[in-house]
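Researcher: Here's a chain I'd like modeled. Treat it as a single chain, no partners, no ligands.
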Amino acid sequence: MRARRLRAGLRGWGGVGAMAVLCALAALLALLLPAARSHHDGSPGGRGAARGGQARAGEECADPEKQTLSPSGADGPAIEAIRNREGGKRKLVVGVDQNSYRWGYRDPNGGTSGKLEGFDIDLVHRIAEDILGDPDAVQFKAIPTDQRIPAIRQGRVDMVVRTMTISCDRLRDVAFSAPYFRTGQQVLAPKSSPVTGYDGTLAGKRVCTAEGSTANAVLTAARKANELPASTDISTTVPNQLDCLVRLQLGRVDAVVTDGALAASQAAQDPTVELKGEPFTTDFYGVAMRKDADDLVRRVNRILVDYHEDTANGWQRSYGRWLSATLGRDPAASKPPTPRYLRQN
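Model: Modeled as a single isolated chain. Structure tokens:
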């Protein structure tokens, strides 16, 4: 699908104009690369070398889920900054969702504690236990879908663990861990709807996506490439993905496009809606962090290796508790993705 979009984009360029632009870009890169290298420490495995690798990943990205640093249990400046917070605030600050059923949500039947629960929340506790020695040493910050990247870049959080898809565009702004979950974009609509999936039945339908979401990016690209029916209305966007479900329930939109894993949980909340058709992309969730937090990225990747291998209290146990009821028959979702790393040093 990505290849079709690329070809569609290239067909819109004049042959001579495209060649001129490419030549100009090549010349510009030739001038900029030496200067860029001079700002980094070139020592093997050093902070500067790793940062250079991540920067290139965002520019030369083909398989975004593989554009991460190899695991390491070593400490570094980002981890030390977390441990040395003053004023009794020695906590991991994490951006999460509080409205995604079974992922990050407050159980309405959980009493007055108001504790966040879910698959993403379990992973946050595991990371805090490893870095700070206490699974509860976490300050949760509920952030909307469209504020995930700004929260990281502005230093409001150390990381985001919020069903966040690893993508080439996002790698320009943040660094990601290795993937911890596999999913894909899918259509959610009322059971009575004539919509059958991501196909021609979306003609004349109003489709909702969250601002800054992978679904929004996919549909926007599909519209530019003429891969959507011309009459499909994709103008409805919301800050939080769950707001799309509300609009669907109110009849303000006809369908929602989002990650299939999230859509399955929403269908579990509302028996009048269902997933339509098969996933039409393959996506991976990752933990998002600052681009210069190389030691933290490597440490989270080390934690994920252990978390995936821990059969008693790790990934599989969390999946069984939170997601097996809605995704149990999906072979791609019911086991952790195999990690691949940009660098092995």
